[in-house]
Each structure stands twice: as structure tokens, then as C-alpha cells.
């Protein structure tokens, strides 16, 4: 939704500089000074996504698929309102008011309501705590550029190990709002990119208008997906040695298929994060009708690994190398 500090760029990072303007001497000094407080720089990006009012068109590309959406965000009197309308594929809208998320499919007349802890999605940055980002990524200022017609400062968050991908970020110079984020392989190859193609920052709040559709849903089938907070160990599982840097953020039991009947199997979902990216671990009862041989897929930066573990089926998904997901499965064991 994605998918940190020594000031020496290795050879594999040099191709990332293409298209980014070199800093003039006075700007280099400023960037160096800024590098001494990298955490504050990153926090400014994250807070801009939460505290600013903005709306724009967002394009996500993974080299195989491209999707476009219209994004609105309003911080209104301590309330967070976000609306995303997908502009391609099946008509769909997501409207979030604080931690309550409504997903609407107008053609199918279906509304899904979930209460969930907000996770960092673009243009927010941190997933599980900003203080930990710089433990696992090195921050390198790369220069100045423009995105969606706006001047931007560019930095590279270079992964310190092979367990995670590097990210290249463009932040609007005046406000710090993230305008673009690239996920990069170890050799510098672009794996996935999310970017505003146009954006307006500092607009008047339109929170009420964004949520207006929720007041009247004639003919809609409304489904509420209830999640029961829990913990892996409480459910009889142990993760003996998770990949370095990833800590459990949330764990909950929820219906596997909210569109089906109340007898739908229950899935246990646990989310782990290293501060910048997160991984979802799903555990459900093994069903020979649905679960066949081990499955491994990679699409852009996102890898998925699904395998059987005794009487259970385990699926791990994240914007990390496949080997990282394998380490999660290897570390998982049944306690009882």
C-alpha cells in the first residue's frame, strides 16, 4: 500500500543519480548539515503527509502493471480524512476517517467497513516507528529535482543489508510532502515507483464532501469486517528468530473471506515492520481444496510465499526480497 546513514555511495548506487541535478556548493553544505539530522528530515516528510491538506493524481507502476488514483487528504481539527478513488479497472473508492475504513464498489453495490490501525502508505513514510528507520537504512542526499512541477529534495535510503530494498525519495522542498518514492534492487534496478503526476498542497479542507457518500448508500450490501486483537504466542505460534530489524506491530484474527458466509475460516494476520517497510504473515487452516503446492510469486517489489505448515497454510507478503520471506517461514513454529 511499502516496499540508513553513512555518507559513502558505493558504485552500485551511482546509476541512481541519473536525472537528478547535482547540488551547487552552497546547497551541498546545506544537505550535509541536514544529513547530520537525518531523523528530523525523515520525520518532516512523515508529518507533512499527516498534517497537510492535499489532493492530486497518483500513479503506481511496478514494471508490469500501472494504476492511477485520485487522492485527497484532510487534517481537520485533529481528524484524519482520506479518500482514494481508483481511476482504472473496476470502480472502487476507499474513504478513511481516522481508523475506520470504508471501501465501496459502486457497480456491485457493496460496502466493506473495517476498523484497523492506520499503516504508513504513500505519501506517509514510517511503518512501525520512525526511530528505527536509520538503524536499517543509510540516508544519502542526492540533489534537487522536480516532480509534478514542484521543486523537490531527493534522498536515497540505502538498505544496510540484503534483507530489505533501498528506497529513493523526492520530498517537496517547502512542505516536505513526499512526491515520489522508488523501490530499488541491490543493483540499483527500479522495481516499483509511486508518484504524484499533479498535486495541490495546502488546500482548504473538504473533509465533509469527501465523506458525504457514506451518509447514504441506497441498495448497498454493507459488510463489517471485525478483527479481534491477539498475539502470535497467544494463538500458539512462536517466531523464534525473525529477520533482523523486523518487529511485530499488530496481530489480529479476522474472517478469511468477508464476502462469504459467517462460516468463513478465520485467518490470523500479523504485521511486522522495520520502520520503513512492513511484512504481513497470514496463518489459516489448511484446506486441500484451496491449498495446493507451495507457491512463490514476485510482482515488482512485492514477493509472496505460501506453504503448508502441518495443519495450517502460511502466506507471507511484503516489499522485500524473497529470501527475507523464507526466513520468516523458517523461524515460525507451532507451540502447541
Automatic annotation (TrEMBL):
It comes from Ideonella paludis. Residues 233-332 form the MucB/RseB C-terminal domain. Keywords: Periplasm, Signal. This is MucB/RseB C-terminal domain-containing protein. It is found in: Periplasm. Residues 37-209 form the MucB/RseB N-terminal domain. Residues 1-27 form the signal peptide. Gene3D superfamilies: Lipoprotein localisation LolA/LolB/LppX, MucB/RseB, C-terminal domain. Its main location: periplasm. InterPro entries: MucB/RseB_C, MucB/RseB_C_sf, MucB/RseB_N, MucB_RseB. It comes from the Bacteria. Belongs to the RseB family.
Amino acid at each position: 500500500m511499502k516496499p540508513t546513514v553513512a555518507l559513502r555511495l558505493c558504485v552500485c548506487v551511482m546509476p541512481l543519480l541519473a536525472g537528478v541535478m547535482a547540488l551547487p556548493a552552497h546547497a551541498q553544505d546545506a544537505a550535509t548539515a541536514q544529513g547530520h539530522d537525518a531523523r528530523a528530515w525523515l520525520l518532516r516528510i512523515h508529518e507533512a503527509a499527516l498534517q497537510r491538506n492535499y489532493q492530486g493524481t497518483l500513479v503506481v507502476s511496478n514494471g508490469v502493471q500501472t494504476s492511477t488514483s485520485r487522492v485527497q487528504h484532510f487534517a481537520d481539527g485533529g481528524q484524519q480524512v482520506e479518500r482514494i478513488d481508483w481511476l482504472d479497472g473496476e470502480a472502487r473508492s476507499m474513504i478513511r476517517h481516522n481508523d475506520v475504513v470504508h471501501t465501496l464498489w459502486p457497480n456491485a453495490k457493496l460496502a466493506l467497513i473495517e476498523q484497523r490501525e492506520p499503516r504508513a502508505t504513500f505519501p506517509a513514510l514510517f511503518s512501525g516507528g520512525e526511530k528505527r528507520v536509520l538503524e536499517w537504512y543509510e540516508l544519502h542526499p542526492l540533489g534537487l529535482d522536480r516532480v509534478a512541477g514542484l521543486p523537490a529534495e531527493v534522498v536515497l535510503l540505502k538498505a544496510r543489508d540484503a534483507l530489505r530494498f533501498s528506497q529513493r525519495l523526492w520530498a517537496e522542498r517547502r512542505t516536505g510532502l513526499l512526491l515520489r518514492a522508488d523501490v530499488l534492487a541491490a543493483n540499483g534496478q527500479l522495481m516499483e515507483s509511486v508518484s504524484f503526476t499533479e498535486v495541490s498542497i495546502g488546500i482548504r479542507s473538504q473533509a465533509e464532501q469527501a465523506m458525504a457518500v457514506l451518509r447514504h448508500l441506497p441498495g448497498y450490501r454493507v459488510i463489517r469486517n471485525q478483527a479481534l486483537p491477539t498475539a502470535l504466542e497467544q494463538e500458539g505460534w512462536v517466531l523464534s528468530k525473525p529477520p533482523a530489524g523486523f518487529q511485530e506491530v499488530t496481530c489480529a484474527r479476522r474472517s478469511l473471506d468477508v464476502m462469504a458466509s459467517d462460516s468463513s475460516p478465520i485467518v490470523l494476520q500479523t504485521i511486522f515492520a522495520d520502520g520503513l517497510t512492513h511484512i504481513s504473515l497470514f496463518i489459516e487452516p489448511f484446506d486441500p481444496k484451496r491449498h495446493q503446492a507451495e507457491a512463490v510469486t514476485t510482482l515488482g517489489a512485492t514477493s509472496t510465499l505460501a506453504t503448508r505448515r502441518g495443519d495450517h497454510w502460511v502466506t507471507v507478503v511484503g516489499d522485500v526480497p524473497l529470501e527475507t520471506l523464507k526466513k520468516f517461514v523458517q523461524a515460525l513454529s507451532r507451540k502447541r
